[in-house]
Amino acid sequence: MLLRAAWRRAVSAVTAAAGSRPATPSRGLRLRVVDHAPQSAVHSDAAPEAEPVLRPLYMDVQATTPLDPRVLDAMLPYLINFYGNAHSRTHAYGWESEAAMERARQQVASLIGADPREIIFTSGATESNNIAIKELEAAIQPDTSLVSVMTVNNEIGVKQPIAEIGRICSSRKVYFHTDAAQAVGKIPLDVNDMKIDLMSISGHKIYGPKGVGAIYIRRRPRVRVEALQSGGGQERGMRSGTVPTPLVVGLGAACEVAQQEMEYDHERISKLAERLIEKITKSLPDVVMNGDPKHHYPGCINLSFAYVEGESLLMALKDVALSSGSACTSASLEPSYVLRAIGTDEDLAHSSIRFGIGRFTTEEEVDYTAEKCIQHVKRLREMSPLWEMVQDGIDLKSIKWTQH
Amino acid sequence: MAAAGAGRLRRAASALLLRSPRLPARELSAPARLYHKKVVDHYENPRNVGSLDKTSKNVGTGLVGAPACGDVMKLQIQVDEKGKIVDARFKTFGCGSAIASSSLATEWVKGKTVEEALTIKNTDIAKELCLPPVKLHCSMLAEDAIKAALADYKLKQEPTKGEAEK
After folding, report:
1. Is A291 exposed, middle or buried (0-12, 13-18, 19+ CB in 10 A)?
2. Does A90 touch chain B if contact means CB atoms closer than 8 Å?
3. Does the distance separating the beta carbons of B65 and A401 come in below 8 Å?
4. DSSP string covering B7-41, please?
5. What GO cellular component term, any one, is given (chain B) (predicted)?
């Protein structure tokens, strides 16, 4: 209909204007953010008893990323004014939301070299993974199988040889799924060059909002998936449920920003990663980097500090937000299965720390983190009986330890 | 009549609510702490970290745990001729709760006799440090470390007794 087409043009003009903010991003993070507690809306008449609270530096981008300010800019109109249901076909509210959704779909597709018709929005990479794996159960032929590989590992940052795996799967007529949550927008991906049939995408790993993701499902040759949730038949019947316009607009904006800034981010993050590793290894002996150094995404650095336990180091580095592969930090008291799988000694698995460097990490933050890390590892080694024994020339592997 | 009464009740109730002290907002918004401040204190203000002379007859050394488990504690005690523990030192490879448990253990054994030190229970250590259930094994290892140090000390006393009897 002419009216609908006109609306689409008008909306794309508005959203384009909203998206074209100044190129330099305003820093979403500062070195210290003063956070005034009490935070409730209730104002007490008494004099404020709470002192301003300093928050830790954020070095855990593999767990989640902050919203890029440009993404928030893109989302706000859809949280305030343009609140229509994208599937409403009878009025302008629906049409403008639908136009925004389709524009976001194009942004996601363009980042991975796909056709927009191959992108289905979901609530996140977990849902996408479930849809992809369920496909295996829905397969008709008994000999159909599926290969599922992570593109970039979230614990050690290792990049899998996706193109080679894709080639092998395609020649054997086996479906290939990859969970690209940590890779999308960070390393170049092309679903056609790499012969990927299914891909999971996560919004909050690429400076987009939480609660949204996408699954890429190849159309040629067609990959059939079974819907996890049934309902009104939205998203080509593959994922019923109203598509949350503000969230998908955020995902689309995050993908577009990532496409523009991928090369610059990669170079900057590589330099910061080198800086962090060099500073630490120059001042501390017996530090092991986990994961293949050649096929590695630089923003995810996993280091094992021998003779120091991971959780105690996290406690000591209380003003830096980090993560560890130690058993003490997991609910199950088992150390990281990833580290175990690559053959890391168990005591080194207990000593691992993951440093995440992202788009907004500054050189100052990296220097501070390295400095504090060196200081506290030295201190914890002074408190460590293992370090003492090694200094005395004892071979730890020769000791019969008591089992507890 | 009833309506008026109800209205008065409502007004009184709302007056009461307005006048009642609001909950301090800080308590409502305080974040859940992962590390109890007592545990952090043992790391930030360490006491009794170090080593005693392993070869000395008056020193008992207990080494418990395993690096593969992520927990190793070394606890040493120095005992005087009267059987009283006059000094204790520890070194630990383990999480914050493990460091705090072993640190507290050295504080508690000081001044006790060898027999009294045997009565220190892991439940007391856990209670003092407010350890969550998932960290209780750290206090158990600290109790084991105390017992291992005492056993080592006793073992060192025995050959001398045998010589004296000869």
Report:
1. buried
2. no
3. yes
4. HHHHHHHHHHHHHSPPPPHHHHHPPPPSS-HHHHH
5. mitochondrial [2Fe-2S] assembly complex
Angle value at C-alpha A201, between A197 and A207, nearest 5 degrees: 155
Q: Exposed, middle or buried by CB within 10 Å (0-12, 13-18, 19+), for B93?
A: buried
**Is A130:A120 a contact under the CB 8 Å cutoff?**
no
A257 residue type, one letter: V
Whether this prediction's pTM lies above 0.90 is answered by no
Q: Which residue of A has its CA nearest to B71?
A: A309
Mean pLDDT of chain B: 81
Contact A346 B68 (CB under 8 A): yes
Task: Give the model confidence (pLDDT) of B104-159 as tens digits.
Answer: 999 999 999 999 999 999 999 999 999 998 889 999 999 999 999 999 999 998 86
Q: Chain B residue closest to A310 (CA)?
A: B95
A332 contacts chain B (CB < 8 A)? no
Say yes or no for a CB contact (<8 Å) between B134 and A333: yes
In the prediction, which pLDDT does A7 show?
57
Q: Where are the beta strands (DSSP E) in chain B?
A: 59-66, 71-79, 85-93
Question: Which candidate, A204, A72, A50, places its Cα nearest to that of A126?
Answer: A204
What is the ipTM for the molecules in this complex? 0.76
Tokens of B120: 């220190």
